[in-house]
Specification:
This protein has 671 residues and is mostly beta strands. The protein contains 6 helices and 38 strands.
Length: 671
């Protein structure tokens, strides 16, 4: 019997079947072993983070027999973006805001779950939360997760009980969050963070047994008056404009961190710098930085987008996935790292030295003509501006490739990249997505040859802009989920579609595969949301709490069926109080103050990705007192709603009036 009969509502720890005396033998050698396919022990499966498995029991010849083995409903979850781990028959993964689940991989039975209990911890940091969490780490019997409010938590893998927790943000009111997965290696756990542009980025290593801080590397320099932490920071300070530290600098390391056992290094991808001025390169923003794994000491860096190389700020960061590999280039073996950051190029970099080997466009790119191989820098071009000083460029800030995992298949040498096609416009005071040019709003799956730096094949989703990560396997297959809820398998050599499954909800996460008792399984988390909330192009009708979030697991010859769920909905079910008089002046002030809310509730209250309620449809938002209690007093903090007690009662009232205005407008349109 599959797990589809299990309704996971209000589950408490106590149904554990993992032995508390289990001898965990997962170590650095097993995580580095590219040929061991039964487990999936770290983000991307091994330290190289290739999203590739050698398992081949499911292959091009029999994938049509693939069926749903079991599924698990995950109430209280929103956006599900995590990479799952498989350790000796148990699946571990994170959910919204840092929930963690352990599941029997054979039957889909929940073993334990961890609630990060946001209400019981400082909440001021959570003004920067979007709920996304991209995975957990495993090391010698412990599971590690970063919570939305900045804690790194170690859990007993057998019971889910908290072993230790440490707050990774030094200041309790930092406008930061954690959405990336920690990485564990050699008795250490590393974690970065995201956050607003007023923060200063850093990555920190902690002792895996005790939670003691081992080292920290700041990704941008701090206030010179306080002294620099290292020579690397002193050098970086020379590349920043005057008094940058007053804005924090940003350059956060929120997602991509890779451990390299060959050189005992960590490679970190960083976000863009803050500040309107573009003078100087502003190190180490928009860069890949190599650090000594034991000490955090700077080794080298490669800056993907130097600040002074552009006349504008398109927000092209380098936080995208980094993959390690060995390539034969010009007849010589090279130890490389590969990245497809947001700026539209695919980079191959010598990881011994940080020197650029090659970089080519993987789609439409107009912000530069090419990357100079000798200097490693983009070639600066004159931007074409119209009479208003507006610049139109490709790609948009979504990038051609965003955070969704790509996959490197070492046997055929191809990299499979989830892509988007979209331009953007930028003026002196604002910007936006879309340029009214052909080919916009299309997502895809690109098979890329990193040695020849050219396309081998491509699938385009004409009706689907925002899709999930990718898995490739020894069975010559490539798996990907789409924003419209299709889970698909392709021939890795040709791109021919071989199999599909309707998941009933959009997919952001990357699939993974594992084996138990000689049976190969494919698993994927289904829970649309995240960055998709910022663009109507990614609105596929998924609405808050209307479609169940799930873990789906597939095997050959199985035929479990999903129960019917609500179909996509594209109209707004707005609620209104006709007795309330709308104060237009106050609503205009509320629209301005609402900006910080848009990441979750949607820009201009247009909710596209279902990670939070559409406030135009909320009965709670009809009542000013109830609205104030949620926004300023934090009565829904346990559910992940930040407490904005820095707002005055007048500011909260203005936002309330703006919500009521937008709801009334939606009501009138619907009628």
């Amino acid at each position: 019997m599959g797990a589809h009969n299990l309704i996971v509502i209000g589950i408490t720890v106590g149904i554990v079947t993992i032995s508390a005396n289990a001898k965990w033998i997962v170590d650095a050698r097993s995580i580095a072993d590219e040929e061991q396919g039964g487990n999936w022990l770290t983000n991307g499966r091994t330290y190289s983070e290739r999203q590739f498995s050698p398992l081949s029991a499911i292959h091009t010849g029999n994938v049509q027999q693939l069926g749903l083995a079991w599924y698990l409903d995950l109430p209280r979850q929103r956006s599900l973006q995590a990479s799952l781990l498989a350790v000796d028959g148990v699946l571990y993964f994170s959910g919204t805001n840092g929930w963690v689940f352990a599941v029997d991989a054979r039957a889909g039975r929940l073993l334990w779950q961890f609630d990060p209990d946001l209400a019981a911890h400082p909440v001021r940091t959570r003004g920067a939360i979007f709920g996304a969490n991209r995975g957990v780490a495993f090391w010698r019997g412990k599971v590690y997760v970063g919570t939305a409010d900045g804690r790194l938590v170690a859990l007993d893998a057998a019971t889910g009980k908290e072993v230790w927790a440490t707050q990774t943000f030094d200041e309790p009111n930092m406008q930061k969050n954690i959405s990336g997965a920690p990485r564990a290696f050699n008795g250490k756990v590393i974690i970065g963070n995201g956050g607003y542009d007023t923060t200063r980025g850093f990555i920190t290593a902690y002792d895996a047994e005790t939670g003691r801080k081992v080292w920290r590397f700041h990704t941008v320099p701090g206030d010179p008056a306080k002294g620099f932490e290292s020579e690397a920071m002193a050098r970086a300070a020379k590349t920043w404009p005057a008094e940058w530290w007053k804005q924090g600098g940003h350059g956060v390391a929120w997602d991509s961190m890779v451990y390299d056992p060959t050189f005992n290094r960590v490679y970190v991808g960083t976000a863009t710098a803050s500040g309107a001025k573009l003078e100087g390169d502003r190190l180490y923003s928009s860069s890949i930085v190599a650090l000594e794994a034991d000490t955090g000491r700077y080794v080298w860096h490669y800056q993907v987008n130097p600040g002074e190389a552009l006349d504008l700020d398109p927000n092209y960061d380098a936080t995208n996935q980094i993959i390690l590999g060995d390539l034969n280039i010009a007849g010589k073996p090279r130890q490389v790292l590969m990245q497809a950051p947001k700026n539209g190029f695919f980079y191959v970099i010598d990881r011994t030295s940080g020197k650029l080997i090659s970089a080519e466009k993987i789609g439409k790119v107009t912000w530069t003509s090419h990357i100079d191989i000798e200097t490693g820098r983009p070639v600066k071009i004159d931007q074409l501006k119209d009479k208003d000083g507006t610049v139109v460029i490709w790609p948009s800030a979504f990038g051609i490739h965003d955070w969704q995992a790509m996959s490197f298949h070492p046997r055929n040498g191809l990299v499979y990249i989830p892509t988007t096609q979209l331009g953007m416009w930028i003026s002196a005071s604002s910007g936006g997505f879309g340029t009214s040019e052909p080919g916009e709003g299309i997502g895809g799956l690109l098979a890329w040859d990193p040695v020849a730096q050219r396309k081998r094949w491509e699938v385009q989703y004409e009706d689907c802009f925002w899709n999930g990560g990718v898995l490739s396997t020894g069975g010559n297959l490539v798996f990907q989920g789409t924003g419209r809820g299709q889970f698909l398998a392709y021939d890795a050599q040709t791109g021919k579609k071989l199999w599909s499954f309707d998941a009933g909800l959009g997919i952001n996460a990357a699939p993974m595969t594992f084996a138990v008792d000689g049976v190969q399984y494919i698993s994927v988390l289904v829970g649309y949301g995240g960055t998709a909330n910022s663009s109507k192009l990614a609105d596929y009708g998924w609405r808050f709490n209307e479609q169940p979030r799930r873990l789906l697991t597939f095997a050959l010859g199985t035929r479990t069926h999903l129960p019917p769920s609500n179909p996509p909905r594209f109209h707004v079910k707005a609620v209104d109080d006709p007795t309330l008089t709308i104060d237009a002046t106050l609503a205009a002030k509320g629209a301005e103050a609402y900006g910080r809310c848009g990441g979750c509730h949607g820009p201009n209250l247009e909710n596209y990705a279902s990670i939070a309620p559409d406030l135009r449809e909320s009965g709670l938002a009809l009542n000013r007192e109830a609205f104030n209690a949620v926004v300023r007093e934090g009565v829904l903090a346990a559910a992940g709603m930040p407490k904005f007690d820095e707002l005055s009662e007048d500011e909260a009232h203005a936002i309330f009036m703006y919500v009521r205005q937008r709801a009334r407008e939606a009501t009138q349109v619907s009628h």
